[in-house]
Amino acid sequence: MKKLMVYSLILSMILAVTGCGSKSQETQETQTQESNPPAAVQEEKQNADFEAPTILGLTLDNLTLDGTLVGKYEGKKITIATCEGDFATALENQVKTFEVITGAEVVVNTFPGESYMEKIQMDLNAGGSFDAILMPIANIHGYATTGLVADMTGMMEDWASENYDPDDFLTGLYDTYARYDNKIVALPYKPDVIMNFYRTDLFEDQELQAKFKEQYGYDLTAPGDSTTLDQYLDICKFFTKKFNPDSPTTYGYCANAGAMNLRWIWQNRLCAYGGDIVNDSFEADFNNQAGVDAMNYMLQLAECAPENWEEFDWESSNAMFCSGDAAMMEQWPGMYNTAQSEGSAVKDKVGASVTAGGAPVLGGWALAISAKSANQELAFKFCEFCTSKDGEILKVENTMDPCRTSNYEKPEIAEYNPLYPVLLECLDKGASIADVDVPIVTSELNNVLELGCHYVLTKEKTPEDSLKWMADQFEETISDAGLK
Question: Where are stretches of biased composition, namely Low complexity (predicted)?
């Protein structure tokens, strides 16, 4: 295995160029005043151009961040990088309002899911293009370790508005997403956790309830805290035509098992059986009976899922569930918006619960600032704006759920998405992070887990052999990185 390069930070020199003009000091001062009107005049102009929007019935009257955005950034420019899709759409919508308030220009650079982290890493190392990055929290932790993202602790003290209120973030969220190695390295943007979605109309059907009880000897109820792993498999099989020709759906279970997503199906059960990905010493904690049991469970779920599910991505897996051909699906929260859209066969027929086993995979995205950005103040204010109490409401309709307790407490937000109480429960029970939280080598270790699960699913390796191979790869990769 190739050794990982240790990236050194290059100190840049700033040239201060001074010049003498032929104009008098009085003339120069007059020109300066004309080109840079007083802050009060700029603020008046900006406020005249900006009217507080109403989103989901809420008037967002502090998008100016206590006035700290007004009249200070006219003509300045920053570039933000992230993955294409919903994240890019949400950012671009926030950018429109931010630009009106500040007069600044914000460019959003987006890249396909399979390549965006590579693009971001290259730029963070070289510097020059991106001022801020929206990406998964585990990646941010790795870049913080190597000094590629800025420590925002001083920025919070010097530049944050009075009412930003970090204590308002969901319990534990700020510590998980923002704090790392005694620093503030990011601001929470999107809480994420895998949830179990199910067809409410099927579970409420009395005829189906009677048939299930006749076959399994206990009541068919919607999945929840009391549902055991074995019971969940019974339900999956009951709604799969392969096992029950009378099933109203072809598949009892569905999930996104495509590239870089398969590992989460196994991981959702790993912690439920008592295992984990790594311990505090960066040692693999899955080459054990818990890992074997979770692999075998994944194989049984596969028997109830579409045969081509390893070809699925976010859109195609959601389309499968929304076609009405699957009874249940494990997916990230944003799927609910798709299920509720026009044309969905399951519109108004979807409920949600904690994943079977009660130990769901926890995701999460946050905004970080490049350590090499020459515009860190403006980049910080943009990150603050996007994650502020009012600012984050601008992104809710783009599948970016709130991170703040106060917003979940608003009746308008609760009415918009009735699954939010379950989302909060799932976040509270999140047991492991979606991306392996080992600095520097997160991507490499994610690939190991993906391959290991694929080998088991395709019968290329037994669960025991694959887990041993995965653990050996972890040991080698982490050792090569100098972390052990």
Answer: 25-34
